[in-house]
Design goal:
It is built from five helices and no strands. By secondary structure, the protein is mainly α.
Length: about 140
């Protein structure tokens, strides 16, 4: 299904940027650092991509359901809690059993922040250009 609202387009842009930024960070780490550090950057990026996907799924279910407020809120709170503990478990597993590099993981996990900032700058530029075309001041 194609995105139909500007908000959906922004979310899709963040998702697309998320993958490209994650690959760029992992590629840069691969050029200038060791292989375990590069895998840690990649792991951080994948965990953040999973985090964004789960947030989008939880928020989507909140917006699409037609249940009572209490039932919907209870279900969403359960999903948010489950998401938190699942990601905490994945991260703990990566640190304790795989032995990833903490700074590499931290660097990789910044990809969602960078992707969101890029989407925000893009929207700001589009609004500024649109207001110029309409003859308004930005």
């Amino acid at each position: 299904m194609a995105p139909s609202t500007p908000r959906e387009l922004q979310i899709k842009e963040i998702e697309r940027n998320n993958w490209w930024v994650g690959l760029a960070l992992a590629g840069a780490a691969g050029l200038w650092s060791t292989f375990p550090f590069t895998l840690s950057v990649l792991a951080g990026g994948l965990v953040m991509a999973l985090n964004f996907y789960l947030w989008r799924t939880v928020a989507g279910s909140l917006l699409l359901t037609q249940w009572d407020r209490e039932v919907r809120l209870g279900g969403v709170m359960f999903k948010i809690t489950a998401k938190f503990f699942a990601l905490l478990g994945v991260t703990a597993l990566l640190f304790l059993h795989v032995g990833i590099h903490p700074l590499g993981f931290l660097l990789g996990s910044t990809n969602l922040l960078i992707s969101t900032l890029l989407a925000g700058v893009s929207v700001s530029q589009l609004r500024r250009a649109s207001s110029r075309l309409d003859g308004q001041s930005p």
